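Objective 1b. Sequence-to-structure analysis of Putative nuclease of restriction endonuclease-like (RecB) superfamily.
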Amino acid sequence: MTNPIKNTLSDFEQVIIMINDARNRVYSKANAELVMLYFNIGKIVSEKVLAGNWGDGTVNDLADYIAEKQPLLKGFNRRGLYRMKQFYEVYSDPEIVSPLMTQFQYTVNERYKFVSALLTQISWTNHLLILAKTKTSEEKLFYLYQSIKDKLSTRELERQLNSATFERTMLGNKFSTAVTSKLPAGIFKDPYVFEFLALPEIHSESDLQQALIKNLQNFILEMGKGFTYMGSEYRLQVGNKDYYTDLLFYHRDLQCMVLFELKIEEFQPEFLGKLNFYLEALDRDVKRPHENPSIGVLLCKGKDEEVVEYALSRNVSPALIADYETKLIDKKLLAEKLHQLSEIFYRNEQ
């Protein structure tokens, strides 16, 4: 017999879903219109300034004119107009536009379509963050694509920018490409930054594990989209003995388990043996038939890149050895590290 109260509540919930869907569509449409408006105003300002028809004083006059005619509008002061000019100029630059058009299958003759279909997918606030906190076209492309692909909130994007996710992802990709093709690009970082843990300089592996579990939401935010927590000290029974892993996750897009093993010392080659043992046990006893082989990440307090390269060169399982830091890292140091790593692999290829 059906429950009329339960059915009524289900109907009510359906109405709420319809309201939320409509609200999201309205917000998306309004955001798209605003982004296109700012792009088109930026185009006018840029072309007038470039042609020498407008100077700084004229832009100030335009800001005053808008304020007089539309006193309730926000964001159209001198600073806002120059941001719109910058927005237009950045995304009219072929160095930035061409790779995106290729990736999203647009041609140069469809630039307006590119702008309306791509740039309008993220908020103006996110655009301002990317413009303000990136320097190179590669960085801008990276964060723009991440914002669209992962639907990053302003908070999530700001954390990625502040913690140099671009540089760390490039380091991880550089290493995985040069050493092993088993790891997917763009998923894992090196190093990971755990400034939210407030750990003392001297800490144990148990301290690190418990702090990460306690701050699991921030940890997953640092790891990236797609990770689902499966547990800590996950029990694996092999023979007559029990073994316990550190932190186990499942990645929905990769469709595989990802095991994070924690080390508070510099990487040693023997660490890989234990990691591979755990990965083999997971694949034999826990992995389901439709899932992909498990991936292991060794988080160490430092590593010698050449030692890691040697250790991974004949490694069978997909694995990454990554540093972890308990405070934000200077982007210049990361750029230098990326350069040094490139030199190591270049020498080895000769």
